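Posted in: Structural Biology > Protein-Ligand Complexes

Title: Requesting predicted complex, magnesium ion in pocket

I'd be grateful if someone could produce the 3D structure tokens for the following input. Sequence and ligand are given below.
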Amino acid sequence: MSGACEAVLLDLDGTLVDSAPDLAAAVDEMLAALGRTPAGEAAVRRWIGNGAPRLVKRALTGEMEAEPDPALFERAYALFLDAYQRHLSEGTRLYPGVAQGLEGLAAMGLRLGCITNKPARFTEPLLARLGIRRYFGVVVSGDTLPRGKPDPAPLLHAAACLKIEPGRTLMVGDSVNDVQAARAAGMRVVCVPYGYNHGEDIAAAQPDAVIASLAELPAWILNEAA
Ligand SMILES: O=C(O)COP(=O)(O)O
Ligand SMILES: [Mg+2]
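-- Reply #1 --
Done. Output follows.
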């Protein structure tokens, strides 16, 4: 687990991009179509991270793990998908330091992957529109495999695609799901503190390090994991 770092897997929402404004717009449009009160962006920020179906269930129930009526969920999920498709990249931006960090990692010759719980139909256009698709040798979305993070499968799948051992692969994320998936995959994990961790301090999940921005990542790897 302490081999030199040869690949870096990066989470999308809350790590590379602040997508909360567009996700909140889609959630609120869905709720309005169902005759419900809007949730607002602050609530949506706490609900992001376990994929789109769970986000919609949280918006319908106000609970993190509750199951809404299946027929209501189906209707709401279709409304959400339609709304998010239209809002996808209106207000979504790269966080400061992301472009510099990706460029630095690529210049070090590291293989890069993007591992997100976001559905693939949104991941690919978003990466392309923000101009960062070309950095990633593999993209694994929330519906690429039967299970998303915190299951280690998406991370192990990405490492296998890049032909790099898990012990030589670093996960970078914003949430406890990223830390748990990395630990279960036998990978080191670095977190950023600015994303969506359900309102909790990410340091409590005990990643190997917390860095203020991705601009710090190339130097961290050179010092800690080269
Ligand atoms: O919950 C989501 O849809 C996305 O979350 P992630 O990109 O942080 O994995
Ligand atoms: Mg995230």
